[in-house]
Amino acid sequence: MRSAAEAVRDIPDGASIAAGGFGLCGIPELCIAALRAQGTRELSVVSNNCGVDDFGLGLLLASQQIRKMTSSYVGENKEFERQFLGKELEVELVPQGTLAERLRAGGAGIPAFYTPAGVGTPVAEGKETREFGGKRYLLEQGIVCDYAIVKAWKGDRYGNLVYRRTARNFNPLCAMAGRITIAEVEQLVEVGELDPDEVHTPGVFVQRVVVGQHEKRIERRTTRKGA
């Protein structure tokens, strides 16, 4: 694709989107900015977190383009808190490992699975539980979204992707969970340049690739005090 704006152009109001990244690491910032500029609204977004107040998914939140968030961690975003407490935003909080497995399961065609995480807590409300080996487990459904937006370090025009370090946490799972997956990459290489053993997301999961410059902010900078 020639630009992120072109890549997201057909995402309609009310679409569900799986968004990769971990904190602000490996987030699809070009696609997020393009969606904000496009003004797509009533989005249902699945992501480990919702960015910060002035960057990442926080931009879509601030412009009230997100109707529902399915997330694990939301502690860095004051606007998220304001909208949630004001009942302007629907929120589904999911244990982090469960969220990862729901995305992986959805991408693998597995409709549901049992997990011990959340049993006996508000997470279990309205969900089926079952006993295995004398222990209670909670039934969780796999997640499949209309679209997925992910960010990789390298990719080729067939959509084979390589992530770096922390960016690998949720991006491969989100890439699997989208019916249409849009990948933005820092480096676009020719087909055959990537070592097959290093590919984290095979191109079969990716429909669109866009290359661009990324800001790559640090969510919270921590430095060691001098002696």
Can you describe this structure?
The protein is of the alpha/beta class and 227 residues long. The protein has one domain: Glutaconate Coenzyme A-transferase (3-Layer(aba) Sandwich), CATH 3.40.1080.10. It contains 6 helices and 11 strands. Strands 1, 2, 3, 4, 8, 9, 10 and 11 form an 8-stranded mixed beta sheet that branches. It has a 3-stranded antiparallel beta sheet with strand order 5-7-6. The radius of gyration is 18 Å and the shape is globular. The N and C termini lie far apart (51 Å).
What overall geometry do the principal axes of the alpha carbons give? globular
Element order: H for helix, E for strand: HEHEHEHEHEEEEEHEE
- The count of DSSP E runs of length 2 or more, i.e. the number of strands, is 11
Number of helices: 6
Terminal CA distance reads 51 Å
Describe the main β-sheet briefly.
8 strands, mixed
Mean pLDDT: 93
At the fourth level of CATH, the homologous superfamily is Glutaconate Coenzyme A-transferase
Which architecture does the CATH hierarchy give at level 2?
Answer: 3-Layer(aba) Sandwich
Q: What is the number of domains?
A: 1
Low-pLDDT segments, ≥5 res = none
The portion of residues assigned to helices is 10-25%
CATH domain class: Alpha Beta
Structural class by helix and strand composition? alpha/beta
Computed Rg: 18 Å
CATH topology: Glutaconate Coenzyme A-transferase
What proportion strand? 25-35%
